[in-house]
Amino acid sequence: MNFDLTEEQAMIRTLIRDFAEAEVAPGAVERDRTGTFPVDIFEKLAKLGLMGLPFPEQYDGGGADTICFAIVVEELSRVCASTGITYSAHVSLGGSPIYLFGTEAQKKQYLAPLCRGDYLGAFGLTEPDAGSDAGGTRTTAVRKGNGVGDGDGDGSGSGSGSGGREGWVISGSKCFITNASYAKHLALTAVTDRAKGTSGISAFIVPTDAPGFSIIDNYEKMGLHASNTTELVIDQVEVPFDNLLGTEGNGFKQFLAVLDGGRIGIGAMAIGIAQGAFERALRYAKQRKQFGRTLSSFQAIQFKLADMATQIDAARTMVYRAGWLKDQGRPFKKEAAMAKLLASEICMKVCDQAVQIHGGYGYMREYEVERFMRDAKLLEIGEGTSEIQRMVIAAQLGC
């Protein structure tokens, strides 16, 4: 069993660590304060050829593996979690659905621009009434014109006002969608036949500038202030039949597969945030003096730091293992859920202890660990809550 990084993985780590320190870290505090989206950073990542890192070169991707992707997410998140989640969502939620389920024509039309970094990727899944219960999707897609069968959606919106074009007419809303303001197209889920339950959910590629498609960016969030989190309003939006992604009625299964890969990204993000908080706590403990001694000389603080380092290393090993299994073409659903669960919960614990080690200063923005703690909380919620991860794991155990 070889735990060494490959030559390519080590090269990617060096490249992205240097980039993160030089280009991402300097503005992280200001971006958190103002909520300014880091457009320039992603333009530079595109020039480095990292925006399509794990996708094949034939679609202008980097041809790298999942571990390389995880390393990039980890290193970006170590200095700025807003940048880390933007990158992770771009690849795992924006690009992966098209790569996994798109036709060759769809990959060339929609995946290649994402890999080049022409715009960011996004995925419309969560709804106001369909969070953990994603099978409760209410957004509908109704056929208009020729096509096999006639999906009944929810019995409404049968194409009124859709002119003479044939295709799908989509109506509904989505919430908590990452990157949508900077996407030109995104994949989203909609009900095509409500009578079939989750087997009546399909996925579509939808242009964000289509008539009736609105993006609302006004959330006030606890953390990740420089990431783009939006609502989508879809009012009788028309797309051609060719914009169906994958097989009609398979949308539910498709997005579950997408989330399996996305959880590796969230796990990597958790490692990065935890590592960043730990490094600040270790540095502070070595410098801060109390009772005539540095904090790091007290056994109570040493034990905290030892536990933090151990937990981060354990989480990293699990995330990389899930990525390795994915790259080997082996089942990884359980391992991805385990990695995401462990890494996200460890991240919160590490950030909590980093604040504790800083004492009163940890509560102040100047020392940054409070930012890491605010950013970390989403990881126990997004791409499946910790409770959902436990349900996924239990199901894989045959419970």
From TrEMBL:
The keyword Nucleotide-binding does not apply. PANTHER family: ACYL-COA DEHYDROGENASE (PTHR43884), ISOVALERYL-COA DEHYDROGENASE, MITOCHONDRIAL-RELATED (PTHR43884:SF12). GO terms for molecular function: acyl-CoA dehydrogenase activity; flavin adenine dinucleotide binding. Residues 131-165 are annotated as: Disordered. Signal peptide: none annotated. It comes from Paenibacillus taihuensis. Residues 146-165 have a biased composition (Gly residues). This is Alkylation response protein AidB-like acyl-CoA dehydrogenase. Belongs to the acyl-CoA dehydrogenase family. Residues 6-118 form the Acyl-CoA dehydrogenase/oxidase N-terminal domain. It catalyses: a 2,3-saturated acyl-CoA + A = a 2,3-dehydroacyl-CoA + AH2. Its cofactor is FAD. Residues 249-397 form the Acyl-CoA dehydrogenase/oxidase C-terminal domain.
